[in-house]
Structure formats: C-alpha cells, structure tokens
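User: Hey, quick favor. My workstation is busy. Could you predict this chain's structure for me?
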Amino acid sequence: MRFGIHHIKGYELKDNVYELKELKGGLRLAREYSFMKRLTKEGSKIHLYENIRKIPHPGGKHTSSYTSYQTEYFLQLPGDEADVVWNVNSSRFVPGFHEKMSSMVKDCPSLAAKISNKENGFHYAQVSFFKEKQMDVLLNIIEAYNNCKIEQ
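Assistant: No problem, here it is.
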C-alpha cells in the first residue's frame, strides 16, 4: 500500500499538532507544502502556524558547508481553502498591516476598529526584530475574532 504526501493531513507529537499546509506569500515558483506546528486551538476561526525552514549553505573554497534554520509564521484565514496558509510577512499583510488585517476581520466591527486604530495589543511595527511581539498581537486578534464569532 502506497500513500502520497497529500494523503496525510497531519500528525500529533508530544501534545503538538502538525498539519500539512500549502505555503502562500513570498517568492514561490511552484506549489510548496510543509508540515507545520499549529499554535492555535482546534476549531479556531483563524489559525496561526509555525514553520521551521531548513536552509543549506554550500561551502566555499575556504569554508565548510553548514545548515541553518529559520522560523516563519503563517496564518490560515476564514474563507480560504483548508490547506492554504499565508506568510505573516507577505504582501497580504504588510505593509499596512492595520488596514489589511482590519479588512480581513470586518465581519467583527469592534475588532476591526481596534486594529485600524492601532490599539495596544492589536498592532505591531512593520519592521520589528521581536517576533514574540508580532505573535502576541496575532494571537490577540485570533482570540478576539473567535470570541466575536461565538457572540454572533
């Protein structure tokens, strides 16, 4: 019996859920898929994922080759296909995060206003070296969106 990679939707390892997602945003010449760690609860209306990309660096004449790892974050948005995620640093979100994100959650007007008005906890600087701040803001938005959808 043979299975293709697309037959596997995900797996669980040490209380972490990993799901197969198609990556969007950035410079991709072909479809790219990756198993990524889901950072949000099952049933969330918006999901946040963490992807660790392996980057090989070939050696030069006087240097050895080595491998580095880069952590990237992706969002799965309401209305998108179930296996599609968007890089949070892609043109879908920046520049103009407050305008773009508020438009994406416009079905929750109070949340859209918080983002649009750049309220504390719902906005981050476009150029930031602190991914933790960016993730905190995204998780705040996701939680508020989920709460809004429960109330509706």
